[in-house]
Fold this protein.
Amino acid sequence: MTTDSLKYLWQFALLCLLQVLIFNHLNLGGYVNPFPYIYLILILPISIGRIQLLLVGFLLGLTVDVFSDTGGLHAAATTLMAFYRPLYLKAQSPREGYESAAVPHIKTFGFAWFLPYAALMVIIHHTALFYLEVFRFSEFFHTLLKTLLSSTLTLAFIFLAEYLFVSTRRRR
Amino acid sequence: MRNVLLFIYRNHVFFVFLLLEFVCFWLIVRNNNFHRGSVLSSSNRLVGNVYELNNNVTEYFRLKTVNEELALENAALRSLLNESKYISSGRKGEVKDSVARQHYTYIPAKVVNNSTDRRNNYLTINRGILQGVEPEMAVLSSEGIVGIVKDVSKNYASVISVLHQNSSISAKLKDSGYIGSLVWDGRDPQVAQLMDIPNHVELAEGMLIQTSGFSSMFPAGINIGKVKEFHVDEGDNFHSIDVELLTNMSTVSMVYVVDNLMRMEQIELEEQAQTDDD
């Protein structure tokens, strides 16, 4: 349990640093900015309490906010995402329920299960983020395009991480 | 009463969610207020240190361009020295300096964090209260304008970039003197928009835009950019003008914070005039 908590703490710090030092400066054509730091929320264990998940989401967003001078923008989006994750997982649960220690990864649940899960979560987060940032509807389609392109790139980075860093041997 | 408590208990996840979102919105709204110093911003000391460390590394990759910029600026400053001027007037006894009081002083600073890809962009610079930086001071680069100071901590300050939806800077056409305001539409970080120029004004591509000096922040006559494109929308009384900014906002690294020594005097006078109106 403690080693697991330490592992997630380390991933929390690593993802935040990667986000603010590298991905925040990756700006393709003024439209596309990926936010792969939300990968952390995707890969928390399924058995995590809903309140705990909300708090982790909130803190993760707030950390990125502090570094990017955005008030509570990221925190609002990550909290929303952390709220929806258990609802989606519950709707998708197998008849006999999840294994008690199951962690959402491609290796454990398969590509066909992971893609819609990750895509929906990323789109919820990015839509909330970009529309809250603009905070008006006059730039509706411009923002929509930005959301879709950025979501695609974020997903690409998440899948890259899934295939590069999640090993098959560590069945959990 | 018991039912209400039971209802809250059954839906406690949702209420925690609402509470957290409420905090987020409060932070967002508070962050948009121009004046208030906030603890949770990149002028915070820890955050500033992380960015400064990162900057110490990445700076090496830009040393060459920074050197070139500095050399150019040195040359420009040298040309302002008295030694490099030729007094064409034959008359003697013209000593103008006793009349000219210092109006603006400049605090050099280094950009330690910067963004251009968002709708609302900020910079962090490595100068703060201890070096005399205060909120609402203007920030310039050697080529043009950069933004306005928002929050200050002891050694860092965060700056609202020109590339921000609340940024609106009083600007004028250098040749004709018409005044407009410079805003940004959130698309190209190199291109801002000049509003409120009446459609009878003659324009040409490449015309120079400068600060008007009407605000208490920017000195007059600082170059902002050049007219890139312009047209009049049907039924509109004003030009829509795209302005190519002179400062490259994505690579800017050395900046100057402007301290207007007579700022308080101007603000007090203007507030006086307003209260007299009411």
